[in-house]
Amino acid sequence: MKTRLTEMVGIKYPIVLSGMSWISVPKMVAAVSNAGGLGILATGPLNAAQTREAIREIRKLTDKPFGANASLMFPGAVENAKVLLQEKVPVINFALGKGDWIVKEAHKYGGKVFATVVNLKHAKRAQDFGTDAVIATGQEAAAHGEDVTSLVLIPHLAENLKIPVIAAGGFADGRGIVAALALGAEGVAMGTRLMTTKESPLHENYKRMTQEKDVYDTLFSKRFDGILCRVMKTDAAKKAVKTGLNWPAAFFNSRDIAKQMGIPYFKLFIGVLLSGYKNARQLAYMANAFKAIRVATEDGDSKTGVLPVGQSQGLIHDVPTIAELFERIVKEAKDAQARVNAALE
Amino acid sequence: MYNTQITRMFGVQYPIICGAMMWLCKPSLCAAVCNAGGIGNLTAANYETEDEFRAAIRETRRLTDKPFFIGITLLPSIRITAEHHKMYVKVCAEEKVAGIEFSGTPLDKVAGMEAVELLKKAGVKLFHKVGAVRHALHAEKIGFDGVYAAGIEEGGHPLNDDVTTMILTPRMVESVKIPVVTVGGIANGRTMAAALTLGAQGVMMASRFIATKECEVHDNIKQELIRRQEFDTVIYGKSIGLQGRGLKSKVIEEVLAIEARNGGFEELIPLLAGQKVKQAWETGDVDYAPLMVGQSIGLISDIPTCAELLERMASEAKEQLARAGKLCGNEAQQNSSYKEQL
After folding, report:
1. What percent of chain A has pLDDT over 90?
2. Predicted ipTM?
3. Chain B residues in contact with A183 (beta carbon < 8 A)
4. Sorting pLDDT into bands at 50, 70 and 90, what band is B338?
5. Inter-residue contact B296 to B230 (CB < 8 Å)
6. Is the separation of the CB atoms in B75 and B242 below 8 Å?
7. Most buried residue among A75, A244, B69, B305 by CB atoms closer than 10 A?
8. Taking CB atoms and an 8 Å limit, are B170 and A151 in contact across chains?
9. Is B320 on the interface with A (CB under 8 A)?
10. Closest Cα to residue B119, out of B82, B94, B85, B148?
11. Measured between CA atoms, how close is A80 to chain B, in angstroms?
């Protein structure tokens, strides 16, 4: 497959691994890149030193192009992004903030920068400051999409942008990729599908649940982590959404985060307080969500854990290796085209 | 040429169907879509008496000799009752219309299997608009000829399973044997190409047809659809168990405010009455009544004739599919099958 995305970063398949906390870890990133896609390291749960170590680990495991994300809303994300620039990571994927300075620095060493967007306004702004591609997140995606669905968002962006559009949300197989290309995208980002593969570090319990759950078994709410977020519909998720923000829990969980990130708690606490009520509330939400996602992905805990998944979980029926998955996708894409071509005759 | 189960079933040029829209899908628009090579819709709820309904079918037949759908919504309403539903079914059978787009409650549960049998005997093709696989399986079981897979992006009443078209169409295609037609988010050749790739045998769209020359609606409305973007629609009515998607407007803000403070059905009814919608379409006042359009309005940027629209969609879809084929490296296939018809 040859698209503007594959040519730009030098990969075989126009398939990007979404940067998912505790899943898009060095081994997984390298596995996707080695199989011909583009692995993206999730730096959300890492501090600067851990980020640097992770990049070096990826480089030991693969000589193929890879990327890393920076969710600029998270504490420590700016420091992590600086490490990515120092380490000259081939692709940096920023989200939830303004990444013009990342673009400027990355371009100095020939790095590419992708912006994750949910609407044309943000996409255009990213294009204006030199971003190389956008990852457009539709409503059906895991975690942070907004109301507009992939079917409407992708063609709208593709028609109005010069830079390549990577479609995220709802893509799990070959027919989906052809559909994305037909809508005008140059590739797709896959989260839910890739987390359900042999190489994925996602806990076995959740790999099983992803296969069992259907297309409608997700919740899409602002009451999990403070912004619209899609998660697997489980009793724990229902409870989390029903409860909304639990301040005392956030207090405890934020101590864990400070410890994990290696920031003195006092500094984190004061920093959060100084950032204003709205931001403090957002970070408190995130602190609880962080914990819930970690125990789901790492411990497989379905009692208190919550896992972000896309509606595409209902299209997933097995746990292949990444290489098997990519081969099958190529075949499915051919079949879908042959079928459509027959209908056009 | 398009050759899908839908084009074959109805003998039409394009697998593009107009969805039911109360007050807008009248004989003129219906015939315009048919004459352009698609399948038009005549929406039954425009007509309260048997004579009016039958006259509208005959009027449409004067304007086109092509097949068209009747749109019948099987939901409790103040103006249109169960008696109306029975009358519509009877007239459709007597007039041997080409097809019916049902939505809402399954036909057998409202009017019994005898209604299904009556229509099938008259040669009427039966389609139900569904938002979930379980509803599609029911339609298939009682002998329907196809289903519309309606994603959450559609205007009107999308099912509260909230599944998007990108997911619902392939999920439905792998679950039923009868043809699946994609609804929700379709407005141009790109979206149609995607739907066909996902396994749909055709597409149905409604909002896009409002902004055509032949649609009898105030020009303000058409201009508003061009101006507004894909994020300018909103879901409302969750609190009363019947969610709808409509254009963001003052009246919908009011509806959402009432819902937010747990205001009841009685308070909402005056704002949601169908008669007000008729007036809004006619006067062009978008803030007067909820206008149930879908996210696809973000893809509308002009007011073509139906013929121009369908022709453009058909060729754009082919171009996009050829592009996708090329990107996937399937050019050999493209040479043999695409080149001759492009």
Report:
1. 78
2. 0.92
3. 190-191, 193-194, 320
4. very low
5. yes
6. yes
7. B69
8. no
9. yes
10. B94
11. 33
A and B: number of Cβ contacts within 8 A: 182
pTM of the model: 0.93
- Token pair belonging to B70: 């009747």
* pLDDT tens by residue, B20-60: 999 999 999 999 999 999 999 999 999 999 999 999 999 99
CA triple A70-A71-A76, angle to 5 deg: 75
Q: What is the pLDDT of residue A279?
A: 80
Does B194 sit within 8 Å of A341, measured CB to CB? no
Q: Residue A151: which of B88, B334, B230 has the closest Cα?
A: B230
> Can you tell me which residue has the tokens 């950032």?
A275
**Strand, helix or coil at B336?**
helix
Q: Hey, is the C-beta of B299 within 8 angstroms of any chain A C-beta? A: yes
- Are B275 and B79 contacting, i.e. CB atoms less than 8 angstroms apart? yes
Answer whether A216 sits within 8 Å of B163, measured CB to CB. yes
Mean pLDDT of A38-67: 97
Per CB-CB distance under 8 Å, the chain B contacts of A315 are 167, 170-171
pLDDT attached to residue B336: 45
CB contact under 8 A, A158 and B190: yes
Instruction: Determine contact: B218 vs chain A, CB below 8 A.
Output: no
Range in A115-129, A135-149, B207-221, B323-337 the model is least confident about:
B323-337
User: Are the beta carbons of A175 and B199 separated by less than 8 Å?
Assistant: yes
Read off the tokens for A256: 């864990």
DSSP A117-149: ESSHHHHHHHHHTT-SEEEEEPTTSSBS--SS-
